[in-house]
């Protein structure tokens, strides 16, 4: 599986600890192949957005229908 530099998006060789293109320290080790905290934060934000936006739309449509019925 190819590894990509998070800063310049260059394809890296397996086991690289530094990007040859931009020199970014990758901090990749064989022990740590999980998600970073920033990955989890972005995933959580997307998930919350996907869940809350339709809920807001449904509530808005419901309120419009209620106000239209009262008028």
Report on this structure.
The chain is mostly helical. The protein folds into two domains: 1-33, no CATH class; 36-71. 48% of the residues lie in helices and 6% in strands. The protein has one helix at residues 37-70; strands at residues 3-4, 11-12. The protein has a two-stranded antiparallel ribbon with strand order 1-2. β1 (3-4) and β2 form a beta hairpin. It is rod-shaped and about 70 Å long.
Number of continuous helical runs: 1
Rounded average pLDDT? 82
Biggest sheet character: 2 strands, antiparallel
For the largest beta sheet, what order do the strands appear in spatially? 1-2
The Rg value, from CA coordinates, equals 22 Å
Q: Which properties best describe this structure?
A:
71 residues; mainly alpha; 2 domains; two-stranded antiparallel sheet; 2 strands
Draw up the topology in text.
Blueprint: E1 3-4, E2 11-12, H1 37-70
Antiparallel strand pairs: 1-2
């Amino acid at each position: 599986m190819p590894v990509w530099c998070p800063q310049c998006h260059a394809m890296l060789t397996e086991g690289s600890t530094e990007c040859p293109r931009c020199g970014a320290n990758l901090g990749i080790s064989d022990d740590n192949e999980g998600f970073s905290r920033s990955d989890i934060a972005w995933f959580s934000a997307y998930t919350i957005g996907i869940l809350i936006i339709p809920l807001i739309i449904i509530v808005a449509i419901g309120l419009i229908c209620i106000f239209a019925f009262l008028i």
